[in-house]
Automatic annotation (TrEMBL):
GO molecular function annotations of the record: aldehyde-lyase activity; transaldolase activity
Catalytic activity: D-sedoheptulose 7-phosphate + D-glyceraldehyde 3-phosphate = D-erythrose 4-phosphate + beta-D-fructose 6-phosphate
Alphabetized NCBIfam families for the sequence: fsa_talC_mipB
Active site per UniProt: K87
GO cellular component: cytoplasm
EC number: 2.2.1.2
Organism the protein comes from: Profundicola chukchiensis
Gene: fsa
Pathway annotation from the record: Carbohydrate degradation; pentose phosphate pathway; D-glyceraldehyde 3-phosphate and beta-D-fructose 6-phosphate from D-ribose 5-phosphate and D-xylulose 5-phosphate (non-oxidative stage): step 2/3
Protein's name according to its UniProt entry: Probable transaldolase
Length: 218
């Protein structure tokens, strides 16, 4: 399973990259705004900075919602760096744009996916990645992990090559469960990734080992 970090924060991206487990980055307009990155030029420079920092795919989201402008914007984003994956919302015009990009060899991430039917359309259109938002489903009392299972089944039934990129991840158990179900990628905030490191028995076991070593080596 690939690990992406879901942030536009360069320090956090670097921390995950330094762990040696990072396969890519996902961003969205809200995550960019959270870091105070506004204006086309600053946003473009920020994407370039992220690409320089990581080895792996970097999702950059289009803002347009009509086919012509999505294509124009997506082509500009894809030209920025070979690591850029164009993130396109799951709407009618988005599906048309994904199909266009797919034929042109431009990789895409279909975002804001909340049903297996939407994921099916994204795969048919040729999306490289599909992003089901599990946390946002949990937020409205619907089991987000069920959606990952459903999409896994649909894609396996028809051998679709679109990769399931579990998104809107809130905590380490989401990551555990996605790995068990067989999501191809999980994108998570740094807090959920580093929480995977933690186990109280690891901490107490290490404390005991060090104490016993120190007793014998005074
Ligand atoms: C996915 O690519 C999105 O950036 C993301 O996971 C959104 O998650 P949220 O529900 O935490 O905003």
């Amino acid at each position: 399973m690939k690990f992406f970090i879901d942030t536009a924060n360069l320090a956090q991206i670097k921390e995950a990259q330094d762990l040696g487990i990072l396969d890519g980055v996902t961003t969205n307009p809200s995550l960019m705004a959270k870091e105070g990155i506004t204006g086309k030029e600053n946003i473009i420079n920020h994407y370039k900075a992220i690409c320089e920092l990581v080895d792996g795919d970097v999702s950059a989201e289009v803002i347009s919602t009509d086919f012509e402008n999505m294509v124009k914007e997506g082509e500009e984003l894809a030209a920025l760096h070979e690591q850029i994956v164009v993130k396109v919302p799951m709407i009618k015009e988005g599906i048309k744009a994904i199909n266009y990009f797919s034929k042109k060899g431009i990789r895409t991430n279909c975002t804001l996916v909340f049903s297996a039917g939407q994921a099916l359309l994204a795969a048919k259109a040729g999306a490289t990645y599909v992003s089901p938002f599990i946390g946002r489903l949990d937020d409205i009392s619907t089991n987000g992990l069920n959606l990952i299972e459903e999409i896994r089944t649909v894609y396996d039934n028809y051998l679709f090559e679109t990769q399931i990129l579990a998104a809107s991840v809130r905590h380490p158990m989401h990551i555990n469960e996605c790995a068990l179900i067989g999501a191809d990628v999980v994108t998570a905030p740094l807090s959920a990734i580093t929480a995977l490191l933690k186990h109280p028995l690891t901490d107490s076991g290490l404390e005991q080992f060090l104490a016993d070593y120190n007793k014998g080596n005074k």
